[in-house]
Design brief:
Radius of gyration: 21 Å
InterPro entries: TOD1_MUCI70, TOD1_MUCI70_glycTrfase_dom
Shape: globular
Largest sheet: 10 strands, mixed
Number of strands: 19
Structural class: alpha/beta
Number of helices: 13
Protein name: TOD1/MUCI70 glycosyltransferase-like domain-containing protein
Organism: Lolium multiflorum
């Protein structure tokens, strides 16, 4: 018999796996002791039975009562529309000032890409409870969820957002079922294709369904986003009950496994060559100049850096606004969304009812699979701004805030010292 590898959850929220002597890997253990669920050996106080979960009334919109979106930007006649628009610095600053009625940039500018087929647009009209994921540029294949109750199978739409490259890859490697209406399915996942990618960089394209879930699926009341490399192991109703309804939160995300400060995360991104070093520095200087202090233990939230592969949301106006402002930062600056999450949270203060849960629980909700291949972009290796300019590495449709003169002098801004606390740094 094969020996199943075990997993232990340490006090520092790391999940350790014992070696499998066969060299084969298996799915984590799923067991229940005295009403407490255990996945990967880490306890999560989820409810026992999805059928017994009572769905509460939706959270009323208290601070921002009406939220609308800009869909057309002023531009030169010769300039093509940009998906994120051309938000200027004054508009950006105004968007952080909370009012009962707000109108903000939030992607999906007219004729800017990310177009959905009519058959999919019709299907999503019924989706009020959503489990969403995404695969772009053929980096992953769909992973089927486990332990999904019949109630959740009927209640939730499982939507896998893909681009044309990924759809072609999936159709060549996996059986895709086509229903009578023309919808495409891989197991429980309904494939939703976005045509005409709005960005040059695949990582930016992946941020569209991830961050702007409420824009892509506007009828959704609740959503659980998981990155394409993740396999869901817990019933989604139990996830909503545990992470939103029990504590009356509207947004939940796990604490990052290693980092608490965005400056530590930025340092790690530079050292691991995940994006151009000078552009990461510029984004961090702007945030530091605008009052974003390094994380400390006495801060309101347990971390300024999330484990961004999983987002759990009730689509209230304030949660939707947060997502819009977060996306705008990703659109203006680098596609490394973990750098801007804590900044937007800082600017909104206590407005968003956010639950940041232990990383160990995150590791127990999902199985992480490897990408089919590694992503690589030449801009990630650039060491100077001159190198980016001379080699033509500037993105033409994203990150434009990094190339637009900032309305303050940043020459004297020195980034706070970073203490590297983990091997990942």
């Amino acid at each position: 018999m094969f020996r199943v590898r075990a997993a232990l959850c340490k006090n520092d929220s790391k999940v350790l796996y014992t070696a499998d002597p066969t060299g084969l890997s298996s799915k984590p253990l799923h067991r229940k002791i005295r009403g407490v669920q255990f996945y990967n050996g880490c306890s999560i106080p989820v409810a026992d039975d999805p059928d017994a979960v009572v769905i509460p009334k939706r959270t009323p919109n208290a601070i921002v009562k009406k939220l609308s979106y800009l869909t057309v930007d002023k531009r030169d006649k010769e300039s093509p529309p940009l998906f994120g628009g051309r938000q200027n610095w004054k508009q950006r600053e105004e968007s952080f000032k909370l009012n009962a009625t707000m109108r903000v940039h939030c992607g999906f500018m007219k004729n800017s890409g990310a177009d959905m087929d009519d058959v999919d647009m019709e299907y999503i009209q019924k989706c009020k409870f959503v489990v969403a994921s995404g695969i772009f540029d053929g980096y992953d294949i769909p992973h089927q969820p486990s332990n999904i109750s019949l109630r959740s199978q009927k209640l939730f739409c499982f939507l896998m957002v893909v681009d044309d490259v990924s759809l072609d890859f999936i159709e060549k490697n996996i059986t895709v079922r086509v229903d009578n209406a023309g919808g495409k399915w891989v197991g429980i996942w309904r494939l939703v294709t976005l045509h005409h990618p709005p960005f040059d960089e695949p990582r930016r394209n992946g941020k569209v369904p991830k961050i702007l879930t409420h824009r892509l699926f506007p009828r959704a009341w609740y959503s659980i986003w998981i990155d394409g490399k993740m396999e869901l192991m817990v019933d989604p109703l139990l996830i909503l009950e545990r992470y939103l309804w029990r504590g009356k939160y509207t947004f939940a995300v796990a604490v990052h496994k290693h980092h608490r400060s965005i400056y530590e995360e930025g340092d790690a991104i530079k050292r691991r060559k995940r994006y151009a070093r000078p552009l990461v520095d510029l984004q961090m200087k702007i945030y530091y100049h605008e009052g974003m202090e390094p994380w400390e233990a006495n801060k309101r939230m347990p971390s300024d850096v999330p484990e961004g592969a999983v987002l759990i949301r009730e689509h209230t106006t304030i949660a939707d606004l947060f997502s819009c402002l977060w996306f705008n930062e990703v659109n203006l600056f680098t596609p490394r969304d973990q750098l801007s999450f804590g900044y937007v949270l800082h600017r909104l203060g206590d407005a968003l009812k956010l639950f940041m849960f232990p990383n160990c629980e995150y590791n127990s909700l999902f199985v992480l699979h490897r990408h089919t291949r590694e992503h690589s972009s030449k801009v990630e290796w650039a060491k100077t701004i001159d190198e980016i300019v001379k080699k033509g590495l500037k993105e033409s449709r994203g990150g434009l805030g990094l190339w637009t003169p900032y309305p303050a002098d940043l020459s004297s801004v020195e980034l706070p010292a970073v203490k590297r606390t983990s091997q990942a740094s």
